[in-house]
Every structure is written in C-alpha cells, then in structure tokens.
Amino acid sequence: MVNQKLFSKVWFIFTVFVFCLLPIKTDVVASASKQFVYDRANVLTEEEIAELERLANKYREKRETDFIILITDDPDGKDVKEYMQDFYDDKYSQSDGNVAILAMDLEERDVYVAGFYKAKKHLDNDRIDSLLEQITPDLTAGNYYEAFHSFMNIANRHMGFKPGIDPEWIFFKWWFQLIVSLGVGALIVKMMLRHTGGKITVNERTYRDTNRSRVLQRRDHYVRKSVTRRRKPSNHSGGGGRSSGGGGITKGGHSHSGGRRSF
Amino acid sequence: MLIHYKCPNCGDDMAFDSQSGMLSCPSCGRYDNIEDFSEEYITSTFSEDEANEYYCENCGAIIITEAETTATTCSFCDAGVVLGDRLSGSLAPAKVIPFKISKDEAKQAFQKWCGNGRLTPKGFMTANRIKGMTGIYVPFWLYDLHTKAKVKAVGTKVRTYTRGNYIYTETKYYDVFRDINLNYVKVPVDASRKMSDARMDLLEPFDYSELKDFKTPYLAGYIAEKYNYNNKELFPRVKKKIRGFIDSYIRSTISGYSSVQFKYKNIHTKQLHSHYVLFPVWMVYYDYNNKDHTFAMNGQTGKVVGQPPISKGKVAAWFSGISGSAFVAMKLITFFLGGGLW
User: Fold this and answer.
1) A204 vs B168, B248, B331: nearest CB
2) Would you state the pLDDT for residue B160?
3) In this complex, do A213 and B342 lie within 8 Å of one another by their Cβ atoms?
C-alpha cells in the first residue's frame, strides 16, 4: 500500500521532469538550421565550417547571442566596418538581434569585431580590443581557422562576465587562483604549526620601567633634498596598426561596439 | 641540613597547598600560615659529611638527590623535604612565587591541551598517557638593567606631486639622533641547565605582584633546584634577550619618516641589580609512539608550553582543506562575476 503510493509519486515527478525537458530539447533542434559562418572568400574547409557552426550553436543558446564570422575578399569597395554594418542591417535589422560579429576583409587585410545589443553591453570596446590582441597574430600568420576558433571561445567567455569587469584580469586565471590558494594554505598551516608550541606573550613594554625610560635628547635635522621627475603616462596609447575605430551606428540605426586591426 | 615539616596536630607530613598558599596537612586538614609556622615543628638535621647524603627525618631512608636538587620528596615515605644547606648563603633565593595551580588543575589543563590540538594525531587526543608529573621550582635570575642608547640614522620623507606634464618625486633627507635612557626591571632568565631556554622564555610573563620573600615551607612537597649559572654567567643572555626590546623602543621614538636607515647604534647595558628567585613550573612527561615528550606549564598563570606530536596526515588535510576552499572561493567569485567555472 505504502509502496504503491510511493511508486505513483515517483512516477508523477518523473513525468513532470520529462515534460519540462521536452521544450528545451525541441528548441535546440530548431535553431540548428541557422547559418553563422559566411565564408565568402573560401578560406575554410567544409569540416572547419561545420566545427565553427557547432560552436556558434552551442554558445548561441548559452549567451542568447549569434556569434557570426563574415569573410570576404571583395567588399564592394566598402570599408570592412561598413561591410559588416550592411551585413547586419540585411540579416538582423528586423529582430534587433544580439550579435557578436567578426568581419575579415582579405583585400585590405583588415579585421573588425563588433557587438550589437546584448553583445554591445558585454563585448564593449575594451574587451574587443583585448580579444583582437589575442587573435591577430594567428590572422597575420594565416591561421584563419585557429583565429576564428579563438574568437568563438574568447567572445563566449567575455560575454559571460558582468559589464565593467576586465575578463583578462589575472585574478580570473585558474593558475593564479591555484598559486594563491596554495600559498594561503601553506601560510595558515605554517602559522598553526608555529602556534602548537605556545605563543610569545611578552613584548617590549612588559619589563620596561616607564618612569625611568625616556629620550634624553632628540635631533631631526633637515639636510638636503633630491627631486626626480618623470613624464606623466598619457592615456592615448595609439600605436602602429591598431587604429581602434571604436563602435558606430549602422545605416539602419543599430548602435554597436567595435574594434579593428590590420593583419 | 634537611628540613621537614610535621603537623602540630597529628604528626603527619605537611606540604605547601597552592589553593590557600599555606602549609597544609593532608591527614587532618590543618592549615598553617607560612609566616608564623612554629619553629618547633620544623626538624632540621645536619649531616656530618659534606651534605651529599641526607636521611629522611620521617622514615630514616636515604634521600637520593641530584646535586642541583634543593627540595624533593622522600622516595620511600613520600614526605616533602627541603635540603636547607643548598638554599643558604649565596644559594639563598631572595624571592619566590608560590604555586597557584594545583596538581589536579595542571592535569586537567594538560588533558584539555591534548584535546584541542588541531594538528595532533587522533590517538593522542583521547588517550591518557601521563607518565609523570612534577611541580618544580625553577631557579631564575631577575635582572634590573640600565641601558644607554645613542643612535644616529638617516630618515627620508618622500612626497610626490604633479606639475604640468611631469610627476615629481621629492625626497627630503634628515639627520636623526636620539639619546635614550632605558630601564628594564625584573627581566627573568632561567638558571637551570636542565630546562630549555626557549621553553622557559615562552612561559613568561610571571605576575610579580605575587613575589614573596623566600621561606623554605613554600617548597615542601615540590621539587626545587638550585641555580647552575650565576648572575654573571647569564648576563650575556639577558642582554641578548632585551636587545629586541631596545631596538623596537628606539624605532618607536623615530616616527614620521618614509624610511629610516641607521648609521650607528651605540648601546650600553649595565646591570643594576640581580635577584635569585624561584618560579613555579609544572612539568608533565608523557609518551607517544615510544617517544618522550614534555609539557611545561606556568605554575602561577597556567600558561601552557610544549611541542606536541604532529600528525602529517592532519597537516596535509588542513593544507588541502584550506587551499581547496580558497580555490573554490575564488572560483565562486569568478563565477558570480560571470566568468563561468572553467
């Protein structure tokens, strides 16, 4: 009797659980048909495109953002930024879509990364700059696939952090966290070990006769001074090849964050 | 000369009682004030030979002692006896701090101490493994010291400011001089060869308000030792002991500088007085894993000193536990800031 009751209860919970899962499952299947990699210059193989699409699908669900890779060797005379903006107006204008996009122009050898809406907030100019910093060497070397792969991973990682935090902060690195925690553990255990034998409970004041201890004579003579100066570090770092274009607004009126590099 | 205290009531052996600070008789419960204990119940016997052999006044057995021992109990009848001639002349202590912690309290403290060792092996914490317990009056020298210190140093004050496109760092140098008189009083140094210096230092401080003029009945029922080193021999050690105090005092008189670099320190310490005193210490001998350990306790304040056995497993457990949770905590912060777990 009791067993039967229990059994029906478990069965009920199980059924509810399965029903809860079903809609999520179908959603994933439905979104699989979308295109994320637009290789208009044929620099990637079929397998590479499939792998990048798979990553984009995975991250799209997690971040509610489309991670797009747009490659061209003939941008119709447009700058890579404008080319990217027109692409967005064409594909996403209707839906105000959250999009992180990497546009590569093989003609001018320029790369531009932009974030729209949610991606604009979470992939701001600073984060895009650090992302570009990490993938440009691969692009220069012609390892396009590796660069795009890193773009997917880094953009996805950066998208997770709350706005205003530097995702490349050393505190977030696992090896830094490991070193610090081992250090903290060693320090505390060392202190515990030292205290097992008993603590010193006398100090300088314990035996001092305060009435008959004093400074008889004190002198603090100013002798000389030395002054050194250095130039104030300027805020504009500006250097070769990294004209940081920043964000912009598309013709369709969509504002975005952004950054660019030549490779 | 051997001194033995007989109860005026019942004739049993009397011993010092740490609770009341009086001589007490365990048989009939009589208490006697040490200051006015009647002479007629103190039996003193002089041995003819150079006082290397003492006969117990109570049972007549030979009392076997080491050369340093000044008070002990007869190993046959357990009567507390004091070897008076080892406490007279230059060997007479000026003051004594009597025991305040009783044997039972010391035992409880030891057991408690065994129990709360976070790094001690598990078996150690529960087992009752006391092999022996002794209340010892340890000989100390108390020094009153006068120190004259003259120091010269270079102090710097650093200031930074911005003018135009430049950041300026201005360093001002000062000639610093101090002439200091320092007096330290009653700095204790243990004068027993048997006791480890480091361990005795850790037992400090003793409360000097309870220093009493020395009377032999305080020692009845305890072990006492005479000093192995005289005040001259221990003077270098007391100087070394207060050197850190002097340095920190000097440093405290030089303030307001970003950095201080000493040119010279001329420190001269001389002894004003030194007193021979006896301080109470409980020693507990115990064994663990066939190794003998000692545990010392300040017989006045109850402060505990001793190196317990350390369990490697527990050290490793604490280390990994703390490191692990620190790592998890940092991962959690990362996670809440949106970094994901990996």
Assistant:
1) B248
2) 92
3) no
